[in-house]
Fold this protein.
Amino acid sequence: MIKDRSHHPIVVVGAGPGGSWAARTAAEKGVPVLLLEKRKVIGYPVRCAEGMTKSMFAEIGITPKEEWISNTITGARIISPSGHAVLVDSSHKNEICGWVLNREVFDSELAIMAAQSGATVHAGTGVVSIKKRADGWELSLIHTGKRISITADVIIAADGFESQVGRWAGLETLVPFKDMMTCLEYTLEGVKGDHRTMDFFFDHNFCPGGYAWVFWKGPKKANVGMGISGARLGNRGTVQKHLESFISSKPDLACGERVRVIAGGIPTSKPLKCTVGHRILLIGDAARVTDPLHGGGITNAMITGDIAGRCAAQFIQNGKDDAYLKRYDKEWRMRLERSLYLHYMIKEYIGNLNNDQIDIIIEALSHAKLDSLEPSTLIKHVEIIYPQIADKIPQLV
Ligand SMILES: Cc1cc2nc3c(=O)[nH]c(=O)nc-3n(C[C@H](O)[C@H](O)[C@H](O)COP(=O)(O)OP(=O)(O)OC[C@H]3O[C@@H](n4cnc5c(N)ncnc54)[C@H](O)[C@@H]3O)c2cc1C
């Protein structure tokens, strides 16, 4: 139980991958950390397509455990409106490309890892307001059904894309509507297809300003979803209408039963101007570090979480010198900012292409021998095939 009026050096708000990883890193440095999650069960309900590539886990610096994984992926395809496909297939080399996770297990395990490192974890505990103090923050919580108040030297805001904590602290976290991806996904049971391959469909008729995905959870089960740019979002129900017509157009998917429905938003904006305030650090989706191109955010949430956990611990251990907190903003930018900007530009570029142009580019790329679908690899090949397109990319910076 958390005691009313108790003091905590570091409070992490939100036990998604970012928050748990931040709590783990800070606790490993020997600093007391309190990790709070408003949901009763960490990791549930899932709001994710659960896709992670091998290189993403390598970026974080961990090897996925067997129990985190629903399905192993050996290939990936980008598919154009008329069916041209850029394919990377590692199956003949017996190589793994990535995984479709079981996020319920994954998120819960990360929180357990934080606890094993010494963090105190409380699910079912939501932060409802924060009040600035000269030496940190006072937080109001709903804990075991009661409202209590605690104090913290530093807050790590890991409260996801709907983040309120950063806004309460006076940080500018607003995402332009056009950069909000509205997503809908069904987990379909009883579907047919190559369950070792992740598919990305770019077709602005089905999915304006975004893409649709099929990520296999097993031989007959797949997460099938799409994200539509806020700029193209019409009336209520638009995403559902588009997802339904996408599924109906594919008999191997249309035969599936909808066993899970997930709706959620993904920020796909440029990086925020500032992610550090008075004794507060924003991480993960709350810091808008989701990859703007594909919308994946687990990796960057954990990377920013790791840096924030370390900087917050150093702040506590070094006479509460604010310079350690400011270092957080610099460090994550050095690691991620360039690719976030580049991917933002590519997203904007693709969003403005019409289906004919998408077809031409994917058809041309389909003849190239690719060993990865990483954006940097694709750009390199586009530069060779279409120097006139590649020329436009720096102009967008
Ligand atoms: C449809 C969809 C598909 C996606 N697919 C992928 C994918 O395939 N691969 C990928 O890498 N990423 C994907 N993402 C993005 C990914 O889910 C997020 O980027 C990632 O979860 C961000 O982690 P986080 O820790 O920053 O935030 P979250 O995982 O959102 O965690 C935030 C946590 O904070 C808690 N919280 C919020 N407010 C409070 C409060 N006041 N007090 C206490 N707790 C609070 C929430 O309950 C939540 O548990 C997808 C997102 C969506 C919506």
Summary: The chain has a mean pLDDT of 93.
